[in-house]
């Protein structure tokens, strides 16, 4: 039976106040420890780029998990058509572009979405429901968007995690 984590709440990266910086720092540290591709450039993107959301389970002193959401899609129809045709690849929009270019769904790139870019759970909280509760928070945050997506490198354990969520 999953145990309940500390409350799940958003951290607003681009409006971090001095008292909230420790929460952002703790979340970034956890994301870095869990994903080999997390870099200082990611922290800069979290702080500066529009359309970034960061959710945390617990507070800075007892952080149990972190989830990074990225807004994607919403491309103009002409650009979506160019993505579908393979003549344009604008930065970002990983899933929106994949749906357009690889699945042949040009209109998919015009839809607005949130993509789960990274999720990390503290080692002592794994397999206790913290990750699932973070994903549920992301799904709640997707109100007003056309879909929620995820991209991840395949491992058996990640596949089992995402399969349990989506099925």
From TrEMBL:
Gene name linked to the record: tmcA_3
Keywords from the UniProt entry: Acyltransferase, Transferase
Highest taxon of source: Bacteria
Gene Ontology molecular functions: 18S rRNA cytidine N-acetyltransferase activity; tRNA binding; tRNA cytidine N4-acetyltransferase activity
EC number assigned by the record: 2.3.1.193
EC class of the enzyme, as a word: transferase
InterPro entries: Acyl_CoA_acyltransferase, GNAT_dom, TmcA/NAT10/Kre33
GO biological process: rRNA acetylation involved in maturation of SSU-rRNA; tRNA acetylation; tRNA wobble cytosine modification
Listed Gene3D superfamilies: 3.40.630.30
All residue ranges annotated as the N-acetyltransferase domain in the record: 29-135
Record keyword Transferase present: yes
Protein name (record): tRNA(Met) cytidine acetyltransferase TmcA
Cross-referenced Pfam families: GNAT_acetyltr_2 (PF13718)
